Backbone:
């Protein structure tokens, strides 16, 4: 089931850190296992709000959750990734719960193992196999628009074809996780995961800056002076836009929403390049001399 971390904590999407922390404090006190001994439902609720807090309290994880949505976020982040670098013991002590290593007990650390269906104390579960890391080259436009790729993964001495869904807007260096396609466990546990590190190729037309795209558009000298219109390449084909009179080389024209698709989509910036002709006809030369004599 999809998780809306904002709804889990009962805060708005634009909530600041103080509001998120206050909401978590209130819910954590209410559902803390020490206050609800033996209550499996309260324990599951506590896990849920703690996971939501771990994501929304981290600026980078929150940004990616907002950018890619629940499905895209969880394709990039496992539960281990979500809680990495989050010392919840300190948070629990800050909220007055004491340092009882509850994080380890609930989420698979020293005090117990987190498994679907609830908390199981005692020894941790079977050891998971190691994750495998592969680089996945992607064409520029597929990284932006998403799609599906098939890769051949060599495991156990033979090639296994695997179809990978590419979510729209993946960036260079990001990792996609394919569950269960890593190394086998040495102790009978679940296999590890396959991590695909994205390598985005260049594009002859567009360059990318986060969610925005840029493209260079050539405008004749007369058009830059007097104003004109030009065809600007977009991901959906060309779009004609106006160029104001007096536009200088290097000026940018913003096409809102024509960048990397998403919620919200990025923008496309057309960089104006005023074209200087390499050769002039006799008539053009005379006209330019007149303009020069007029101070232009």
Residues:
């Amino acid at each position: 089931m999809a998780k809306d971390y904002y709804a889990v904590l009962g805060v708005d999407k634009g909530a600041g850190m103080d509001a998120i922390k206050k909401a978590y404090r209130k819910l954590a006190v209410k559902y803390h296992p020490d206050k609800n001994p033996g209550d499996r439902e309260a324990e599951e609720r506590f896990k849920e709000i703690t996971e939501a807090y771990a994501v929304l309290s981290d600026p980078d994880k929150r940004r990616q959750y907002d950018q890619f949505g629940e499905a895209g976020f969880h394709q990039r982040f496992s539960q281990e990734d979500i809680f990495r670098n989050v010392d919840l013991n300190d948070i629990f002590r800050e909220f007055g719960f004491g340092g009882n290593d509850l994080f380890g007990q609930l989420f698979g650390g020293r005090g117990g193992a987190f498994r679907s269906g609830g908390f199981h104390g005692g020894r941790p579960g079977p050891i998971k196999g190691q994750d495998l890391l592969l680089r996945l080259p992607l064409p520029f436009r597929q990284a932006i628009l998403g799609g599906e790729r098939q890769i051949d993964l060599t495991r156990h001495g033979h090639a296994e074809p695997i179809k990978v869904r590419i979510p729209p807007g993946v960036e260079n260096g990001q990792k996609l996780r394919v569950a269960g396609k890593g190394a086998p466990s040495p102790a009978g546990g679940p296999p590890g995961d396959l991590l695909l590190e994205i390598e985005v190729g260049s594009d002859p037309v567009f360059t990318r800056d986060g969610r925005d795209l840029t493209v260079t558009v050539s405008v004749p000298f007369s058009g830059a002076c007097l104003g004109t219109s030009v065809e600007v390449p977009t991901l959906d084909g060309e779009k004609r836009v106006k160029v104001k009179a007096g536009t200088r080389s290097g000026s940018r024209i913003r096409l809102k929403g024509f960048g990397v698709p998403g919620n919200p989509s990025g923008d496309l910036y057309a960089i104006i390049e005023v074209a200087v002709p390499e050769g002039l006809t006799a008539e053009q030369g005379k006209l330019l001399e007149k303009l020069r004599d007029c101070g232009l």
Notes: The CA atoms of residues 170 and 232 lie 24 Å apart. The domain at 5-121 is CATH 1.10.287.110 (Helix Hairpins). The chain is about 35% helix and 30% strand.
